[in-house]
Amino acid sequence: VEARNGVAVRIFGMKQDITEEKLLADKTRYLAETDVMTGLANRSQFQTRLGNLAVAPIGGLLLVDLDGFKQINDSFGHALGDQCLREAARRLTACCDQASLLARIGGDEFAVLMGPKQTESEISALGDRIVKAVGQPYEHNGHAIALSASVGVACHRRGTADDLFHDADTALYAAKAAGRNTSRTHKH
User: Fold this and answer.
1) Residue 101 burial (CB < 10 Å; 0-12/13-18/19+)?
2) pTM here?
3) Which residues does the annotation mark as catalytic?
């Protein structure tokens, strides 16, 4: 600002187009937080959100593991396996519309974080809906590919993020031990 006798008479400035930098920053953030194959949040974003338990409360955690996914990859190849992962992600997105976060956290593993307003019975019921939604056959080139999921459910009452994850993981192993293609809820 150029001033005369304390009064602004002229303003000098410079402007610069930062569109490219902004697009690059947005793309970098997207790649850092997103599983590019499914478009869901990735493990890093999931862990960050789970770690913020004290700041942003969580009502429950559901861990979803696709049953027999290794056999799909081994029998039909990774290209079909990738299509099955994308289809599972699509089905999860459709039935988890109340989720605060849906993430792919491993090869064939997904996690669903529910907000604090959902009741324990609503969160448990979601586990059953996920089993049903994922368990529909996947049509590929006229062949039905069998998909199914085991789901571990844990409702958050108190404790740490590690406690919540451990409870959901324990429930997931109980679902697998019960024969897979089912949901189990951790009971305190």
Assistant:
1) buried
2) 0.84
3) 108
pLDDT digits (tens, 9 = 90+) for 31-51: 667 999 999 999 999 999 999
How deeply is 121 buried, as exposed, middle or buried, from its count of CB atoms within 10 A (0-12, 13-18, 19+)?
exposed
The closest of 103, 115, 111 to 33, measured between CA atoms, is 103
For the chain, give the DSSP string: -EEETTEEEE--------HHHHHHHHHHHHHHHB-TTT-SB-HHHHHHHHHTTTTS--SEEEEEEETTHHHHHHHH-HHHHHHHHHHHHHHHHHH-TTEEEEEE-SSSEEEEEE-TTS-HHHHHHHHHHHHHHHTS-EEETTEEEP--EEEEEEE-SSS-HHHHHHHHHHHHHHHHHTTSSSEEE---
Q: 81-115: per-residue pLDDT in tens?
A: 899 999 999 999 999 999 999 999 999 999 999 99
Q: What is the average per-residue pLDDT within 4-13?
A: 88
